[in-house]
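Figure 3 (text version): structure tokens given as input.
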């Protein structure tokens, strides 16, 4: 039996607006410069905070400086989430997760988010209904970030299966590349920010707009 691994931001929760506002305002405050759409896609979306901060602010930041800046930005992001009625899992996803759980299919999350944000999502979105926090592959500073494959190798390890037994749901270029390099059996591109043609060009084998077509989703997750 295979397993299912979800990226989180932009995949389970379509948070493009929250990420755009929080990152752009934070970086403009710190650098005085406006981030272009091309820069955002290449250096922010799907990347971990360390990579983004090193690129836009300084590659010589200490670990303590990096942590302080990252938390400042993430607090902006979490506040935006809490203030919005759109802070919820994507339509159809809870029902899909219920079916995967009912069928006994192993599943977890592989995210560039840090532990504080992951705990925040678990608390406010009820993720413990389907996932174990201890089996989430997250940005803990010990792994190379996407597009390196390490986080998907870790996710497979946490599920007790091989990477080639995993079906991955991703929305970002760096994440799709990471899943492909990890050897995932199938990478499903989620059209939260990009269209089907772009996701397929990046390496996705199939795409979805949302999680409402339960029959198709269950077929896509068959290994």
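Below: residues designed for each position.
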């Amino acid at each position: 039996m295979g397993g299912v691994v979800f990226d989180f931001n932009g995949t389970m929760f379509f948070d493009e607006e929250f990420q755009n506002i929080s990152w752009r305002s934070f970086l403009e405050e710190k650098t005085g410069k406006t981030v272009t759409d091309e820069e955002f896609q290449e250096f922010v979306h799907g990347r971990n905070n360390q990579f983004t901060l090193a690129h836009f602010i300084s590659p010589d930041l200490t670990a303590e400086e990096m942590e302080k800046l990252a938390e400042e930005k993430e607090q902006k992001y979490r506040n935006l989430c809490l203030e919005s009625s759109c802070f919820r899992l994507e339509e159809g996803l809870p029902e899909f997760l219920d079916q995967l759980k009912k069928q006994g299919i192993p599943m977890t999350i592989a995210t560039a988010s840090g532990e504080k944000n992951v705990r925040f999502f678990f608390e406010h979105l009820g993720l413990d209904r389907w996932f174990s926090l201890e089996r989430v592959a997250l940005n803990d500073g010990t792994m190379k970030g996407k597009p390196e494959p390490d986080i998907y190798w870790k996710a497979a390890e946490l599920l007790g299966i091989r990477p080639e037994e995993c079906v991955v749901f991703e929305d970002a270029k760096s994440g799709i590349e990471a899943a492909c390099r990890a050897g995932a059996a199938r990478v499903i591109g989620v059209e939260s920010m990009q269209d089907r043609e772009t996701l397929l060009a990046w390496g996705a084998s199939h795409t979805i707009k949302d999680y409402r077509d339960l029959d198709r989703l269950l077929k896509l997750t068959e290994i």
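The first helix runs from residue 16 to 31.
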